[in-house]
Design a protein that fits this description.
heterodimer, A: 64 residues, alpha+beta, three-stranded antiparallel β-sheet, globular, B: 395 residues, alpha/beta, five-stranded parallel β-sheet, 9 helices, 25% helix
C-alpha cells in the first residue's frame, strides 16, 4: 500500500500528523513531508494510514 | 452487540457521507442508505466561500464521493429528496418513499440564519448553488455589502476585494469573532479585515432592509451595494424532525457517542448535533469540518460494534486576506489570552501572531494567524493541556 501527497494539495492543517506523527511527518513550516511519489506504508499501519488520509480537509493525501 | 441490518443516514453532506464510509471501514456488513436533500453528488463545503467562490476551483474538485465510489461501498443513495419525518423504525421522504431501518443517523446540517424582512435577492451562503449564484452576482458587480464579520463573511469579503470590488462589512458586536475567539483575538480578526482593504463597520446595528440593495442602520444611515450577503451563522435543520422525545432546543442533544438522548437506534452528527463534551461538561454544537469527521468515525464504530477511534483535539480554520487563521482546542474555555508568538496582540503585524488561551495554568487553546508551523508545534501541548511554563518555553 502506497501513501502519497497531491502536488500543491497540502495547506498545512496538520490533521494527518495528529493521527500519527511518525507516519505523517510535517516539514519545518507545518506542511506534509509525504512526497508526491509516495512512500510504502509499513506493515500493520494500513488502518492508521487510512485515518490520516481521511483527516485531511484538502483531500491532499492518497492511498493506493 | 449485534449489528443492525439497515442503517439510514439522513443528510449527504460531509457528516453523512463520512458516516456511511466509516461504517464500511468499521466492517459494517448490513445495508446502508444515504438520503440527501440536494440533487448534487456529495460535496465539501469549506471551498464554497473560498476557492469555488473565486473560481479558482471548479465544483468537480469538491466532490467527496461520486456515484461510482458510493456504489462500490454498497451505499444506496436517495439524492434530491429531503426527509420529512422520522418515525419509530422508519424515515419518510418528500417523494412519499418510506425507508425502514433499525438504525438512523441524523446529519441534516444547518440552514443559514436570515434577518427578519430579508429580501429573497439577498444572498446567503451554505450550498453549492448558493456559492455559484453569489459568484455569478459578484462577476458583474462593483460593490459588496456583507452583514456579519465572522469567518464566512470575512472570506467572501477577502475574495471580493481581490477581485477589485468595493467591500463593506457590518459587524454588530464591537469586534468580530468575539464569542468564539474572545475580544483580544477578535481585534486581530478585525484588523485583518480592515487592513485587507475592507470598510469594516463595528457595532453596526442593521435595523431593516430598505430594498434588496440597501440596508438601514440604527443611526439612520443607509448603505447600498450591488450585492448583499448575510453571513450571521447557521441554525440546525430540524424542522423535519418530529420524532417524539427528541430535545431540539439547540440542535439534537446526544451523548458522547452521538446517541440521541431519549431514543434508541438514533444517532446524530455534525452541525445539527449537540454532543455531550466531557471536557466542557455540557452539550455543545460544533460547526467545524474536523468535528464532523471525528463524530462520523465515532458513530460508525458505535453502530458497527467496533472500538471507538482515538480522541482528537478540536481544530478549525479560515482562509482570508492572504493568510490562514488556525485554531486548536477550546479557546472559549480560556480565562486569559497570552501572545505566545509574534506581535499582533501588541500592535504589530497580524501575520505570524499566535495566541495561547489559558484556563488557570493550563493551555486549552491556540489560535494562529499565518503561523502554521507554530500551530503544528503547539498542537501536542494543547492535546495534553500543558502548563504555562511548558507552553511559553516552546521554541
Amino acid at each position: 500500500m502506497r501513501l502519497s501527497s497531491r502536488e500543491d494539495g497540502c495547506e498545512a492543517h496538520g490533521q494527518c500528523e495528529m493521527v500519527d506523527e511518525n507516519l505523517f511527518p510535517l516539514d519545518e513550516d507545518g506542511y506534509t513531508a509525504i512526497p508526491v511519489e509516495g512512500i510504502e506504508v509499513p506493515a500493520g499501519k494500513e488502518e492508521t494510514a487510512k485515518l490520516g488520509v481521511d483527516a485531511c480537509p484538502l483531500q491532499a493525501l492518497k492511498l493506493e | 452487540m449485534s449489528q443492525p441490518g439497515h442503517v439510514v443516514v439522513i443528510g449527504a453532506g460531509l457528516g453523512g457521507v463520512r458516516t456511511a464510509e466509516q461504517l464500511r471501514t468499521a466492517r459494517f456488513e448490513g445495508a446502508i442508505s444515504l438520503v440527501g436533500a440536494e440533487p448534487h453528488t456529495p460535496y465539501d463545503r469549506p471551498p464554497l466561500s473560498k476557492q469555488v467562490l473565486t473560481g479558482a476551483w471548479t465544483p468537480e474538485r469538491i466532490v467527496l464521493r461520486d456515484h461510482d465510489a458510493l456504489a462500490e461501498l454498497k451505499i444506496d443513495t436517495h439524492f434530491g429528496v429531503p426527509a420529512v419525518a422520522l418515525h419509530e423504525g422508519a424515515v419518510e421522504l418528500a417523494d412519499g418513499t418510506t425507508l425502514r431501518a433499525d438504525a438512523f443517523v441524523i446529519a441534516t446540517g444547518a440552514d443559514p440564519r436570515k434577518i427578519p424582512g430579508q429580501p429573497d435577492e439577498v444572498h446567503t451562503l451554505r450550498t453549492l448553488d448558493d456559492s455559484l449564484s453569489l459568484r455569478s452576482a459578484l462577476e458583474g458587480a462593483t460593490s459588496l455589502l456583507v452583514v456579519g464579520g465572522g469567518f464566512i463573511g470575512a472570506e467572501v469579503a477577502s475574495g471580493a476585494v481581490a477581485q477589485g470590488l468595493r467591500v463593506t462589512v457590518l459587524e454588530a458586536l464591537p469586534v468580530p469573532c468575539e464569542r468564539a475567539l474572545g475580544p483580544e483575538v477578535g481585534v486581530l480578526c478585525g484588523r485583518l479585515i480592515s487592513e485587507g482593504g475592507v470598510d469594516l463597520r463595528l457595532g453596526a446595528k442593521l435595523t431593516r432592509f430598505v430594498d434588496a440593495g440597501t440596508v438601514e442602520l440604527s443611526d439612520g444611515e443607509r448603505l447600498s451595494a450591488d450585492v448583499i450577503l448575510v453571513g450571521i451563522g447557521a441554525a440546525p435543520s430540524l424542522e423535519w424532525l418530529k420524532h417524539d422525545g427528541v430535545d431540539t432546543t439547540n440542535g439534537v442533544r446526544c451523548d458522547a457517542r452521538g446517541r440521541v438522548l431519549g431514543t434508541s437506534g438514533v444517532w446524530a452528527v455534525g452541525d445539527v448535533a449537540a454532543w455531550e463534551d466531557p471536557v466542557r461538561g455540557k452539550h455543545f454544537r460544533n460547526e467545524h469540518w474536523t468535528s464532523v469527521t471525528d463524530q462520523a468515525a465515532v458513530v460508525a464504530r458505535d453502530i458497527a460494534g467496533a472500538e471507538p477511534p482515538p480522541a482528537t483535539v478540536p481544530y478549525f480554520w479560515s482562509d482570508q486576506f492572504g493568510l490562514k487563521i488556525q485554531g486548536i482546542g477550546r479557546p472559549e474555555l480560556g480565562d486569559e489570552v497570552v501572545q505566545v508568538k509574534g506581535e499582533g496582540l501588541t500592535g504589530g503585524p497580524v501575520k505570524g501572531t499566535v495566541a495561547g488561551y489559558f484556563a488557570g495554568d493550563r493551555l486549552v487553546g491556540v489560535v494562529g494567524f499565518g503561523a502554521a508551523k507554530w500551530v503544528a508545534r503547539y498542537r501536542a501541548l494543547v492535546a495534553k493541556g500543558a502548563d504555562r511554563t511548558e507552553a511559553l518555553a516552546m521554541e
